[in-house]
Design goal:
This protein has 448 residues and is of the alpha+beta class. The chain folds into two domains: 4-260 and 434-445, no CATH class; 264-409, no CATH class. It is 33% helix and 22% strand. The chain contains 15 helices and 21 strands. Strands 1, 4, 5, 6, 8, 9, 10, 11 and 12 form a nine-stranded mixed beta sheet that branches. A six-stranded antiparallel beta sheet has the order 15-17-16-19-14-18, sandwiched between helices. It has a two-stranded antiparallel sheet with strand order 2-3. It is globular, with a radius of gyration of 23 Å. The model has no long low-confidence stretch (mean pLDDT 92).
């Protein structure tokens, strides 16, 4: 069963830091170098100093980003920059936003609450993952957790509550002015309220008790927390309900409005003997290809917009629709899987739900069979980097920074649920739940 509990979070004192917008950040893995530099300049108390610190020349094992992170955390707590709430609570967390293009629509409100969720091994059937993880990010987060013994970011968890009973309780808390309201760099407004009444806390705990949970975002941090828990238990056995057995989570009802999933596009570079024509010749066995040509005189943006429109029209239609642009070809391409392709024979190890996903077809057919990428090279990102914006991916190819960019439609939440509950997982970076949860809102210090 899912166990959630309130906690006395450490929170920034907004007056001492000149406003929360100066110190809160996007999740560590969504902070590119320029954003990192901006955060570090913005305030000496910005959370990036802890979760995304900069290595210094000559750093030793005794003086590195993780040691400095712990020094910052300890000093900020001693100075009252970070202050612990006097009593345990849940924290209603609402995000108001407009989805980015091409999903732009009216303002959306996503409702969640922050609490401590008990860590569960995947084989216990309580917490399910939907994406594979990479070794390097987990090693990085584990070093930070060992050094600071604190969780600065929440795991984004999905649960199912068609009657929206928890949402209604959160609405009651949100009837009062929030204790925190901050707008981030993407125009998303984040608002928080304390949920501290014993009756409300017990009701939320009871409603979640029989639920299964699906990790939407934070797979690396969840698995890092599991490893940290194992280490703590190995050093000195702890009770099952000790601090190291819990991690902060934001719980979102997958049956309510506000869940937006964006695609993550794939940039390809570093392939030997690359040519677009050779790739398309191999891909012709599996895909029908439609081209949207452009020229230096007309520019490439009109062709890109045609491809975007065609892909959007085919989203959720059941047939793979993958976009592409190549460094040595003046055309955007729409790749549609041929009906004659025997997926059950080619991909016998996958479930029908997995075989229905564009991202699976891209990885297992286009990348593996047409480009010769093995699972290890994909997992270690030997040839792949990831971008959120369609235009950014295209511009990287046009500027010669990548050999190709492959564009995807977003995975549907219903597909995530089905595959996760089957105990299966998608390729890494298959989903991009938008917006991200701000880091530093409710910090959990592992006391035991």
């Amino acid at each position: 069963m899912a166990m959630v509990t309130p906690f006395a979070a450490y929170r920034y004192d907004a007056q001492k830091v000149g406003g929360l917008e100066n110190v809160l950040t996007q999740p560590y893995d969504k902070i590119p170098p320029e954003m990192q530099r901006n955060y570090l300049r913005r305030s000496p108390y910005n959370l990036a100093h802890i979760v995304k610190g900069v290595a210094r020349e000559g750093d030793s094992a005794a003086d590195n980003v993780y040691v400095r992170a712990n020094d910052y955390f300890r000093e900020w707590c001693e100075q009252g920059i970070l202050a612990q709430r006097p009593a345990p609570a849940f924290y209603a967390y609402f995000q108001q936003f407009s989805p980015p293009a091409p999903l732009a629509q009216a303002t959306v409100l996503r409702k969640s609450f922050i609490g401590l969720g008990r860590l569960e091994e995947y084989d216990r059937g309580v917490v399910f993952r939907h994406e594979q993880t990479l070794s390097a990010p987990k090693a990085d987060r584990l070093e930070l957790l060992r050094a600071t013994r604190a969780h600065f970011e929440q795991i984004f968890m999905l649960y199912s509550d068609p009657e929206r009973r928890i949402d209604r309780m959160l609405d009651e808390a949100a009837a009062q002015p929030p204790w925190a309201r901050v707008e981030d760099e993407y125009g998303v407004v984040h608002m928080l309220w304390d949920v501290k009444e014993a009756q409300q806390i017990q009701a939320i705990q009871q409603l979640l008790r029989d639920k299964t949970l699906i990790i939407a975002d934070g797979h690396h941090r969840y698995e890092t927390a599991l490893q940290f828990q194992r280490e703590c238990q190995a050093q000195r056995p702890h009770p099952e309900l000790s601090d190291c057995c819990f991690v902060p989570m934001s719980f979102v009802n997958m049956d309510s409005e506000g869940l937006v999933v964006l695609p993550t596009h794939r940039l390809v570079s570093g392939l030997a003997n690359w040519t677009a024509e050779a790739f398309l010749a191999r891909a012709a066995r599996f895909f029908e290809v439609r081209e949207y040509a452009f020229s230096q005189a007309t520019g490439w943006e009109a062709a890109m917009e045609k491809l975007q429109a065609e892909m959007a029209a085919r989203a959720g239609g059941g047939a793979a629709a993958i976009g592409a642009v190549f460094q040595d070809k003046a055309a955007f391409c729409l790749m549609q899987l041929r009906e004659s392709v025997p997926l059950e024979e080619i991909l016998p190890d996958l479930s029908p739900a997995e075989r229905s996903l564009d991202v699976t077809i891209l990885h297992r057919i286009a990348f593996a069979l047409c480009l010769g990428m093995d699972e290890e090279s994909i997992r270690e990102e030997k040839y792949l980097t990831y971008v959120r914006e369609f235009r950014e991916g295209a511009a990287s190819v046009m500027a010669g920074k990548a050999q190709a960019c492959f564009f995807l439609n977003p995975v549907q939440v219903s597909q995530v649920r089905e595959i996760a509950l089957q105990g299966r997982s998608l390729p890494q970076k298959s989903t991009d739940f938008y917006p991200k949860l701000l880091s530093g809102l409710a910090i959990h210090r592992v006391e035991s």
